[in-house]
Backbone:
């Protein structure tokens, strides 16, 4: 019998995640209180947990920490992605407080699951080992599958949940198989040690197949073509506040983990995956934008737009290096505020006692609710990439990095795509400002928390658009230790 | 010989996995899954992971499969499960097939005693080795799994409670 030596339990690098998980447990306990009213308290507790995690993350900036045999690596890169995730979760929570009550789907479990999925996202960005990466991905995904089916009375919501679950489980098994083959080829699941093990023999077939399968799993989570089939149905069917979280938080976490795996474990095979991602980026941008043109449902249109934006971020990944990686991180930040804001406006608009999801529902919104219409217009303009909003700066840095890295044609395709995208975003603006409503007009479903979320998102896109430099510098500094 | 055993068992695993996917009848699928889980357990055993092999048999092929079959029979019993079986004579095949598997198992276990087996990890695959890894190197993933299970449980509660 050998003596077991327990590893030192360093909770410092885990503090942000633990705060979120602790708030989740607290929400579950408070939900047991016999009073049926007062679910807002649970929402407040959840929000406090997220804000606490955000503050803890900011406080740890610059203090890189590793724990549990390098299983968790909370470096500046993970911290930056964590900030994005915390904002995404906080905005989603603010939007959901009144939205789920109006839909009679309010429950303590809802807030607990939002916190659990947030914790999964944060760990995903900080995973230094494929085992932790997989578990964090499952924690994030399982909670999201359930949240997508929150409206059990609505067929579309159940369908979204079921599709997301089955396709997600399929993608997870691809990923798991990839992890197993990678372990078989290298004898380790630690990202640093994988890089060391394959140095000089990165064309080992077992390793190539393993990493290919791993990228399939990431392709699903980042909604890249050809693994994007689930996106429109899930984004459309899921409750809108959950859609906002799927579109922003889970995408940020998946991109964070993808960047870490590519730049740390696959450093030696960079020319190979760059060529692969080049094709995927072109496909993702083009399919997303072309399909979005044909949509009449705003949520579905934003779903395809989110696929297209994943393509733009892949352009930054192809560019690689400090400026490429940094531009993707910055893009994630701008995209989170913009997309959460756009979905946020949808949660606040009602027509004939139902959620206003058709583009036609928004006709005449500018006359009846000018502030709401202006907010949605600003978010859509930011998605197009009109200066001086955040979306423009995000695209500017991503495309700039691609040009500097010599990917001129890729940038041309990306810019053409952005121009194409302007059509379907502007169509919504035209409806809001220049069309008269047919039938019942769209009304505002009052929500103080939702309005607060919109204000935060608006401040975000304007601030990031007007003074981007410090944030871009932070993003590049965050990526620097990874790419070396 | 060890290779031959591997290929026989691996072929069984693949065929049973295909059967699970391709059969329309849910019960047949469940039975194929049992064969699949058993074959995988044998593969674990040949690799020297005794504890995993038996945990696989007891937990998956045993406990979880009972739940599967139970759920299928209670929720969606088809005609084939409730009516008379038209392929009764086929049952005679079960005996030689079972015997074959049994002989293989005896063979593999016997070989393993000899210390052989393909690619045995130096730490061994017993309870002690697994526990050692779980509580040292993989302590964090082990703890994280508990959070994952909690989230799954809460999720099931959320989805199931509203159906009634």
Residues:
């Amino acid at each position: 019998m050998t003596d077991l030596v327990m590893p030192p339990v360093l909770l410092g690098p885990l503090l942000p995640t633990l705060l979120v998980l602790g708030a989740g447990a607290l929400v579950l306990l408070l939900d047991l209180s016999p009073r049926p009213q007062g679910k807002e308290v649970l929402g407040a507790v959840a929000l406090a947990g997220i804000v606490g995690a955000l503050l803890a993350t900011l406080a740890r900036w610059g203090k890189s920490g590793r724990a549990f045999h390098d299983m968790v690596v909370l470096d500046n890169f993970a911290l930056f992605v964590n900030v994005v995730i915390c904002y995404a979760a906080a905005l989603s929570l603010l939007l959901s407080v009144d939205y789920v009550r109006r839909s009679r789907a309010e429950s303590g479990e809802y807030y607990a699951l939002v916190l659990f999925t947030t914790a999964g996202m944060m760990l995903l960005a900080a995973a230094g080992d494929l085992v932790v990466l997989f578990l964090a991905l499952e924690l994030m995904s399982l909670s999201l599958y359930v949240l997508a089916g929150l409206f059990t009375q609505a067929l579309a919501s159940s369908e979204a949940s079921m599709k997301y679950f089955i396709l997600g489980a399929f993608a997870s098994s691809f990923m798991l198989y990839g992890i197993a083959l990678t372990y078989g080829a290298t004898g380790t699941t630690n990202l640093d040690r994988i890089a060391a093990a394959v140095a000089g023999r990165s064309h080992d077939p077992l390793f190539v197949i393993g990493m290919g399968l791993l990228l399939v799993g990431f392709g699903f989570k980042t909604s890249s073509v050809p693994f994007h089939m689930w996106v429109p149905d899930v984004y459309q069917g899921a409750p809108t506040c959950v859609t906002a979280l799927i579109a922003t938080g889970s995408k940020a976490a998946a991109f964070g983990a993808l960047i870490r795996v590519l730049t740390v474990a696959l450093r030696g095979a960079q020319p190979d995956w760059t060529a692969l991602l080049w094709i995927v980026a072109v496909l993702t941008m083009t399919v997303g934008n072309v399909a979005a043109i044909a949509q009449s449902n705003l949520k579905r249109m934003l779903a395809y737009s989110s696929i297209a934006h994943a393509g733009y971020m892949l352009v930054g990944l192809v560019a690689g290096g400090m400026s490429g990686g940094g531009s993707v991180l910055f893009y994630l930040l701008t995209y989170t505020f913009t997309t959460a804001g756009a979905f946020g406006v949808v949660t606040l608009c009602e027509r004939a006692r139902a959620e206003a999801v058709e583009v036609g529902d928004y006709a005449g919104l500018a006359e009846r609710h000018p502030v709401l219409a202006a907010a949605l217009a600003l978010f859509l303009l930011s998605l197009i990439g009109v200066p001086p909003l955040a979306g423009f700066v995000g695209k500017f840095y991503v495309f700039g990095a691609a040009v500097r890295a010599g990917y001129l044609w890729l940038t041309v395709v990306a810019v053409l795509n952005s121009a194409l995208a302007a059509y379907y975003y502007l169509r919504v603006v035209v409806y809001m400002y220049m069309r008269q409503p047919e039938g019942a007009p769209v009304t505002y479903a009052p929500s103080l928390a939702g309005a607060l979320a919109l204000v935060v998102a608006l401040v975000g896109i304007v601030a990031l658009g007007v003074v981007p430099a410090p944030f871009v510098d932070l993003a590049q500094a965050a990526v620097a230790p990874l790419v070396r | 010989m060890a290779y031959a055993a591997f290929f026989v068992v691996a072929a069984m695993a693949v065929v049973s996995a295909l059967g699970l996917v391709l059969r329309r009848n849910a019960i047949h699928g469940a039975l194929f899954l049992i064969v699949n889980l058993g074959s995988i357990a044998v593969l674990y055993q040949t690799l020297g992971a005794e504890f995993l092999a038996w945990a696989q048999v007891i937990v998956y092929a045993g406990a979880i499969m009972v739940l599967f079959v139970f759920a299928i029979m209670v929720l969606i019993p088809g005609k084939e499960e409730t009516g008379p079986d038209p392929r009764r004579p086929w049952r005679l095949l079960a005996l030689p097939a079972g015997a074959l598997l049994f002989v293989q198992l005896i063979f593999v276990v016997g070989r393993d005693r000899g210390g052989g087996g393909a690619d045995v990890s130096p730490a061994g695959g017993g309870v002690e080795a697994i526990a050692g890894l779980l509580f040292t190197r993989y302590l964090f993933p082990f703890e994280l799994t508990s959070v994952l299970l909690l989230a799954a449980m809460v999720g099931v509660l959320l989805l199931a409670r509203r159906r009634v």
Summary: Residues 12-483 of chain A form one domain. The first strand of chain A starts at residue 65 and ends at 67.
